[in-house]
Specification:
Elements (H helix, E strand, L loop, with lengths): L2 H9 L10 H10 L1 H9 L11 H18 L4 H5 L8 H10 L2 H5 L7 H12 L10 H14 L3 H8 L3 H12 L9 H19 L4 H6 L11 H5 L4 H8 L4 H17 L7 H18 L9 H4 L8 H15 L8 H19 L1
Protein name: TTF1 factor
GO molecular function, one term: chromatin binding
Pfam families: Myb_DNA-bind_6 (PF13921)
Length: 349
């Protein structure tokens, strides 16, 4: 099937397919389209959102069956093959021979990618590690002195993810300023963001810009580029006095002010209505994990704002309203907000 036909056929099952990248559409056409058509013949619709207990059980069965057929001795080796470099080649060969993609998704009417992510979450022994203790932070500093930025090696030693140890170290090492942002810091942040976006677009040849007489500010960048994931540890290094999370929060504030022309969108009755709408929409999505939420789609609840702004408002909402939220799953937090706080907010409004 050619690309345009595949996209049209996928749209029947995934209405938001127009927002998906071309490379993802090609993968879905290969892994999912035939499956979706089979499910349609059986009268089964493609599902999104929260995985049911039945689906979780099916994933467990599919993984166990695959381990049994191939002789791979653990789900971790199957789903986190890169952690076992000495076995990697043999495992990947077994995956190809025994049709890992088809077997993992068997009997589950969802996109393969979501099934794979769910399986990795269920079977990752490094999951749910919680906050870093003082001892862990000291170990992290020691391991970094020994291994530098080899985050993969450090992650293996500490039984944490690569991203987790890299981000945590960036927080520890920064000469952090916790006060209000100065004009100089804000300018550094904006220049740093512009630099990484230029690099991403392959447009950082400043010589060609200056030779053509163009200003550095003449670059037109669409909203998606400004809001998408940026290399925050790189930006942190350029700013120098703030750690990556502060840089990300400040950039979100700058973007929000630009996009809303400084209007207060989350105050008073507007703020209450936004909280009510946010809780209702999240509850309707029935997702099990915050990573499964399409935060872009929720932006219109508050107004023309970046996705990070909505995520920040949700974080404040759960921290201020949900007791012992750290010990609750994402779906339990949403259920609590819907059942306990939503009626209060509606009465206040």
């Amino acid at each position: 099937t050619d690309f345009d036909t595949a996209r049209q056929e996928l749209e029947e099952f995934i209405p938001h397919v127009k927002n998906i990248s071309d490379s993802s559409i090609r993968k879905m056409a290969g892994r999912d389209l035939t499956r979706f058509k089979e499910f349609k013949k059986q009268g089964v619709t493609v599902k999104f959102g929260r995985f049911s207990q039945k689906e979780n059980d099916q994933i467990r069965k599919n993984v166990e069956d695959f381990l049994s057929v191939t002789g791979i001795d653990s789900a971790e080796k199957l789903l986190f093959t890169s952690r076992y470099p000495e076995d990697k080649e043999a495992i990947n060969r077994l995956k190809a021979e025994h049709l890992f993609c088809e077997r993992l998704s068997e009997g589950i009417p969802r996109p393969w990618r979501l099934i794979y992510y769910r399986a990795r979450k269920m079977f990752d022994p490094n999951n749910y590690k919680g906050r870093y203790t003082k001892e862990e932070k000291e170990k992290l500093k020691k391991y970094h002195a020994l291994h530098g930025n080899d985050w993969k090696k450090i992650a293996e030693i500490m039984s944490r993810s690569n991203l987790s140890v890299a981000m945590k170290y960036s927080e520890i090492k920064s000469a952090v300023n916790y006060g209000p942002w100065s004009k100089e810091e804000t300018q550094k942040l904006m220049h740093a963001v512009e630099e990484v976006i230029r690099k991403r677009l392959g447009m950082e040849e400043s010589n060609s810009l200056s030779s053509s007489g163009k200003s550095n500010r003449d670059l037109s960048i669409d909203l998606e580029k400004l809001c998408q994931k940026l290399p925050w540890t790189e930006i942190e290094a350029k700013v120098g006095t703030r750690y990556w999370r502060q840089c990300k929060q400040k950039w979100t504030t700058i973007l929000t002010n630009k996009m809303t022309k400084g209007q207060q969108l989350y105050r008073g009755t507007k703020g209450l209505q936004a909280k009510i709408n946010l809780i209702k929409r999240l509850y309707e999505m029935k997702v099990e994990d915050a990573n499964e939420v399409n935060w872009e789609e929720l932006s219109d609840i508050i107004g023309d704002v970046p996705r990070a702004y909505v995520q920040a408002k949700f974080y404040k909402l759960k921290v201020s309203c949900v007791p012992f939220w750290q010990k609750k799953t994402f779906s339990e937090i949403i259920d609590y907000l819907f059942e306990e706080k939503l009626p209060e907010f509606e009465e206040m409004l």
